[in-house]
Amino acid sequence: xxxxxxxxxxxxxxxxxxxxxxxxxxxxxxxxxxxxxxxxxxxxxxxxxxxxxxxxxxxxxxxxxxxxxxxxxxxxxxxxxxxxxxxxxxxxxxxxxxxxxxxxxxxxxxxxxxxxxxxxxxxxxxxxxxxxxxxxxxxxxxxxxxxxxxxxxxxxxxxxxxxxxxxxxxxxxxxxxxxxxxxxxxxxxxxxxxxxxxxxxxxxxxxxxxxxxxxxxxxxxxxxxxxxxxxxxxxxxxxxxxxxxxxxxxxxxxxxxxxxxxxxxxxxxxxxxxxxxxxxxxxxxxxxxxxxxxxxxxxxxxxxxxxxxxxxxxxxxxxxxxxxxxxxxxxxxxxxxxxxxxxxxxxxxxxxxxxxxxxxxxxxxxxxxxxxxxxxxxxxxxxxxxxxxxxxxxxxxxxxxxxxxxxxxxxxxxxxxxxxxxx
Length: 423
Known about the structure:
- By secondary structure, the chain is α/β, with parallel strands linked by helices.
- It has two domains: about 5-55 and about 325-420, Aspartate Aminotransferase, domain 1; about 80-325, Aspartate Aminotransferase, domain 2 (3-Layer(aba) Sandwich), CATH 3.40.640.
- The protein has helices at about 10-20, 55-70, 90-95, 110-120, 140-150, 155-160, 175-185, 205-215, 235, 310-325, 325-345, 375-385, 410-420, and strands at about 40, 105, 130-135, 160, 185-195, 220, 240-245, 260, 355, 370, 390, 390-395, 395-400.
- Strand 6 (about 220), helix 9 (about 235) and strand 7 form a beta-alpha-beta unit.
- Helix 3 (about 90-95) packs across helix 10, helix 4 (about 110-120) packs parallel to helix 5 (about 140-150) and helix 11 runs parallel beside helix 13.
């Protein structure tokens, strides 16, 4: 008889689901359906999270307020719009492990990254280099390269990359430290995607921050693939800033808003430059329109424009579910889901499929990236035809992300079975 850890039957998956204390949250989401009416096996929350069933009603509430109140909806109604962004703060702070005055929901991811670079990339004749991972998400690379050029530096000289060793896919922590030490006196900024979009590797935020600060560099993180996925603890990490989106694990909808974290030690530093707009101005005098800029204490001072209420509704609606479930509980389930997926994939053998995501649970989130040997996009098309929604990355990597809020162990089993049948 097989060990329970290696039981590859659907009954075992269903037994694990029956023991899952978060199993009821799946019923709160719309699961996409195939033409035959059956649900897809949706394992693509690392690209776009699913829609909570309560989102439509939440948006309708604000449409009704707009209809009934017009401009007075800014100050009246069930959820007055002027303080709307504040409704999201408590739950968002819990998700990323921050204090309330360190977090704000605004703009979109790369816009927020540029705003953070305005404040925290302050090059001078001695320090002007930026350190990133070699396989950074393209938008991050574009942002830092454009910032370097804006300040008059050539990215070919000023952009430093940490690469995996020859024949390897993942970054070694000691190589990150070594690269920081090599360029320490010239580093102005270190920026990493703390959970890599391609490999799923979750980098040690506090360690990298400590290494960077030891050499006098500012340290920031793109948490797009981490927020709502891993237990970030941004405040305790000591990093200077972080940015993230809300359309992946946070289920805010396509292209939804971004989040910003600025560590509290910077919040009362008047020497930090920033781009400013009227929504960062003192709330008590904002509408008097004649005052010089008086920044709101805390990260809200980085706000520029009025909150886009209709875009914030789905984010707040989803964050309520995160608050109810608890990020630590979700992380515990995620570890179990991903571990179960790993165990199933390992039964196929390394000569067929290699998991390029780290095997250590503390070095990965919900995503496993599978390198399928001798495969082509035809494999992806075939498993899609058979009812699985995952993500294909050239040349032959399938990214699989069982999101703990709505995915089940049976989902994982179905994916494994369909993949195996198509190999």
